[in-house]
Amino acid sequence: MTRQAVSKHLNILERANLVATLKRGRDKEHYLNPVPIYAIGERWIGKYQRRHLGALHELKNQLEGKGEKHHE
């Protein structure tokens, strides 16, 4: 990739708030911004995890309930 192409991509990521920048003199350092990436994960992946965690919780309750009835 050319330096101009990299610069263009970094500018797009910076405008999308996915990359944070720090200017030091003539240099510009780029860092990943984890906050929006985490938000995307919560919005898209989190809802599926909640469903699986809910199913595991229900299974736990059912198994514990059967275990209690067995001991009576």
In brief:
By secondary structure, the chain is of the alpha+beta class. It has 2 domains: 1-32, no CATH class; 34-72. The protein contains 2 helices and 2 strands.
Description:
With 72 residues, the chain is an alpha+beta fold. It folds into two domains: 1-32, no CATH class; 34-72. 71% of the residues lie in helices and 17% in strands. It is built from two helices and two strands. It has helices at 3-15, 34-71; strands spanning 19-24, 27-32. A two-stranded antiparallel sheet has the order 1-2. A hairpin with a 2-residue loop joins strand 1 and strand 2. The longest helix has 38 residues, at 34-71. It is rod-shaped and about 70 Å long. The relative contact order is 0.08.
Topology:
Elements: H1 3-15, E1 19-24, E2 27-32, H2 34-71
- What shape does the CA trace take? rod-shaped
Domain unit count: 2
**Assembly classification:** single chain
Going across the biggest sheet, name each strand in turn: 1-2
Overall strand count: 2
Structural class: alpha+beta
- Catalogue the unreliable spans: none
Straight-line distance between termini: 71 Å
Rounded to an integer in angstroms, the radius of gyration calculated over CA atoms is 24 Å
Largest sheet: 2 strands, antiparallel
How many helix segments? 2
**Overall pLDDT:** 84
- Specify the helix fraction band: over 70%
Task: List the defining traits of the structure above.
single chain, 72 residues, alpha+beta, two-stranded antiparallel sheet, 2 strands, rod-shaped
